[in-house]
Amino acid sequence: MQPPTSIEWYARDLASIAGELDTDEAGLSEDEAARRLEAHGPNRIEEAPPPPALTVLLRQFASPVIFILGIACAVTLALGEYIDAGVIAAVLALNASIGFLQERQAERSVRALMVLLSPHARVLRGGREWEVDSATVVPGDVVLLESGVKVPADVRLFSAVGLSVDESLLTGESEPVAKHAGDIEGQIVVADRANIAHAGSIVTRGRGRGWVVSTGMATELGRIADEVRRSAAPRTPLQVRLNRLARTIALAVAVAAATSFVLGVALGESASEMFVVAVALSVAVVPEGLPIAFTITFARGVRQMASRNAIVRRLAAVETLGSTTVIGSDKTGTLTENRMTVRSIYAGGQYFEGDRHAGLDHPGGIDLAEHRPLYLTLLAGALANEADAFRTESGIESQGDPTEVALLASAMAWSIEPSEARERYAPVDERPFEPEQRYSATLRLHDETLLQFVKGAPERVVGMCDLVAVDGHVAEPIDRGALVAVADEMAGQGLRVLGMAYRELPARAEFDEEPAGLTFLGFQGSLDPPREAVADAIAACHAAGIRVVMITGDHAVTAGAIAREIGIPARRETVLTGAALAEMSADELLHNLRSANVFARVAPEQKLLIVERLRAAGEVVAVTGDGVNDAPALRAADIGVAMGRGGTDVAREAADMVLADDNFTSIEAAVEEGRITFDNIRKVTFFLVSTGAATAVTITAAIALGWPVPLVAAQLLWLNLVTNGLQDIALAFEPGEPGLMRRRPRPRAEGILSRVLWERVGITGVVAGVGALVLFRYELDASGSLERAQTAALTTMVLFQMFQVGNARSETLSVLRKSPFSNPFLFAATAAALGVHVLSLHVPPTQYVLRVEPLGLDAWVRAGLVASTLIVVMEAHKLLRGGRAAYWPSGRHAS
């Protein structure tokens, strides 16, 4: 019987495993393999199916604002106001359609990036070697592993020769892990299970054999995938803010409707008539255009992020990055390029520093013929090497262990072509790298001279040497302590250091038991280099008040070195390891989370714990990752950011956003787009809520004064959906404001509207409401026509909206500093809104539906002058609340 995970298998001896799996080193028979396949099922990670279309559609109606609109639609329908009900229903349908199409498109984009497990595996069955579909691998199968193979299932090794496996997608460790077939005791983390080759990892060197102990969802990869799919994603900050706004709107609707109903009845109006007025007032307060404007704002943000290599899977996640206070980033493949590069060479008593991206530079004026120790150091790295690298039109193509590939690239940077060198120095014998011996060696024949080159761990190579190459053909007695100190200094910089040595041998010599009497040549130190521009992106995040922390499965020294290079503060004593975290109390952990910026050798459950504790402390947390080990944290974060090119399917399924280029710099761009998106959501909300407040004040005050209702329900819908609707959608395309990325993140407790904007909502309600009432009363007294007075009030409100949309373009900057042409959509929408309204006053169908009539020039002038007062009042408020920053570039909000 197969246990649920591979956790127990690493601690068992081989005899008990073979007995429990009923297998041996010759493998299963074909009949037995077929029987087990039927019993255990295919060896696949079950892909979470995309949500049904109906689920995605219903999700669009989950907003509380949509719920309020639904109630308003039902009430107007029950009252027989079919036109009004039809308009509201159309709004709901349009909003749902836009959101549905956007989410389905994003889901298709992510699915297109997904790649499943390796399609084939080599197994022994009945003592014969077979190549089979990896989905047919079963527990008890003997799997054959060699360089370049993707491990098809969790395999307990019973044979390993120089076997190294890249487990970065599972553990986050950038360097390949040496594997062996020995027993291991005690409880250890996945990264230290050296006798298990896990599903999804890739063999970088050597060969091995082992029994399949877990397949499909029972593998370590499958276990994490299952945990992720069963966990619920947290609500985004925007969803919390929207719910809070919806409750505020609902309360305002209830208060306004109840107040108008009670006042009207108290003043002698009939209850039925006042009920109709209360419904009309509810329609006025509820911003019917808000859901559509939100959806279009999100969709615009999604498109902008996609153009900057960030694919957003859920619309509400667009804004979350803009609210982020902490980004917890994986290292390997996100901050770094996920390829080793030689960064420093020590040879002949000199250091030669390398380029951090392309390999070691060829410094001008250096002739390798005159720097023999350097030349031989590069040559040794290329010859005692099992990898392959060659030039193509697109760059250097390679295969093999990343560190050995780095040595080949290092030689090529100095014009030593590995293929040509291997021809000139013909191979005679090889001793491949073994973890136990910690070195590799090669015998080469060159011009009838037999040369032995050795490459390996610094202390091992130095221990084999008696001499050290100094210059030309000169060698001196070795100072082993001094050389080990050099290697330690290089390792302290996060470099993986290898030593190189050689000697000349008699023509018929063979390998000794262990090389000795060598001449030391030099060290080469390699590192997975940071991505280009990632340091600038991190600096931009810091300037935006966003803390960037590194959470990786890699070693502490390497993580700290990379962190310091890219601008993440990381003193050696503040790099916390998973082992240290495991010993901390809850209070100690919280204290260290506030001060430490680098967490190394972290297990998946610890990464999840870090995210949960940061969120509990009030942080808005974005987490990046590419591996299966990252998936739980991606799901638990406020926004999970997965890698699209080098990541796993499990990580992408757990994430809210996928980076098409796997680059941290795209996150910084997405943060900027997220902030623009939230700013525009805030502008749209302020515009609609403030104009809704104006109509509410107008109607409530008229009822309190015993006047006729200045605006009927159809006119209120006209304001909210047509004249407002054109302009609020155009606000979604407002460009980012100066200094956007120098602001601090918004507090989690702050709503969609700030306190300053709520003040302006109240001011707008009073100024616009009083202005509309004054002109309503003037026209009513002058003409005696209620329809003409209502037309004047409606027209005044339309003009108030025109001026208010200019005020809404910036919370801090004066409207005088905002060019009307910087957002051509808004300019056109404002002109169109005015044009549509003018047309509606003269076209019979709209005259009938809206109950309006044409106005004379004098009425338009009066309405324009009254509406323009809103600009003066809002400018005064900006000056009082924002000071000089509203008008002069030297202020803190200016660029």
Give a description of the structure.
The chain has 895 residues and is α+β, with helices and mostly antiparallel strands. It is 48% helix and 17% strand. The chain contains 30 helices and 26 strands. Strands 10, 11, 14, 15, 16, 17, 18, 19 and 20 form a nine-stranded mixed β-sheet that branches. Helix 5 runs parallel beside helix 10 (290-307) and helix 24 (664-704) packs antiparallel against helix 27. The longest helix is centred in the C-terminal third of the chain and has 41 residues, at 664-704. The radius of gyration is 35 Å and the shape is elongated.
Please tally the helical runs, counting DSSP H or I stretches of 4 or more residues. Answer: 30
Rg computed from alpha carbons, rounded to a whole number of angstroms: 35 Å
Poorly predicted sequence stretches spanning 5 or more consecutive residues = 1-7, 112-118, 355-364, 887-895
- Going by helix content, strand content and strand pairing, the class is alpha+beta
Shape: elongated
Look at the structure and give the mean pLDDT: 84
Number of strands: 26
The biggest beta sheet is recorded as: 9 strands, mixed
Key structural traits:
48% helix, single chain, 17% strand, elongated, 30 helices, disordered N terminus, eight-stranded mixed beta sheet, alpha+beta, nine-stranded mixed beta sheet, 26 strands
